[in-house]
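re the bet — no i am not wrong, look at it urself. input seq straight from the record:
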Amino acid sequence: MSKHSHDSIVPFEGSEQSKKDQVASMFDQIAFRYDFMNRFLSGGIDVYWRKRAIKELVEIKPRQVLDVATGTADLAITTYKYLQPDRIIGIDISEGMLQLGRQKIEKLLLNDHIALQKGDSEAINFPDNSFDAITASFGVRNFQNLEKGLGEMYRVMKPGGKLVILEFSKPRKIWFKGVYNLYMKVVAPQAGRWLTKNKDAYSYLNKSVKAFPEGETFLHILQQVGFSDTSLKRLSLGICTIYCGRKRVS
């Protein structure tokens, strides 16, 4: 299984911890302000991105859904709101994020429909062919081994099932690139430092987005781990992309 340069981008340079442990620790540290930072840094457009991603699943009417790297469960909650599947399971390696997600789910009275559990995206604790759909928003970029994580998602998906990944990408329009780079390099880390007392997390955001194998390259990786019918849709001048794939019915 090949490694990608993105796999070695870590939140805390010089730390002896693995990327996985660093990512869990980073999200535990910023969990208390995570939702606010998402709305603040994206100007609220991340809500629209999630809705667009979930629209990709309308055609298959999934009954069992797995949300990988669920964080505070925003995508899982959006999925339930628009698709009403029988069951959504969200997994994440950060207990701090999961606690906040559980509070939101309880408040919305969705405990019977959405369950969150601590889980490693690269060793998913479910049998083969368990889910009709698998989603991930802004999470695969944090995998320690991208192909291993995607391979696990493929394994636990039912034949005919659909994958929908929402991930940051880099804009292509020249006039927008400069503004975007300044924002990611200076504004986001500074805002992170003021609002979460953690500049590392938002510097890591910039570095990990830059190193992520996006666009056609990412589709190729999806195909390598077994997905077919792969496609992508760029949103908001290319700062975010929806990737889709299917598991063949053999």
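see?? The mean pLDDT is 88. told u. also The two ends are 23 Å apart (CA to CA). so pay up
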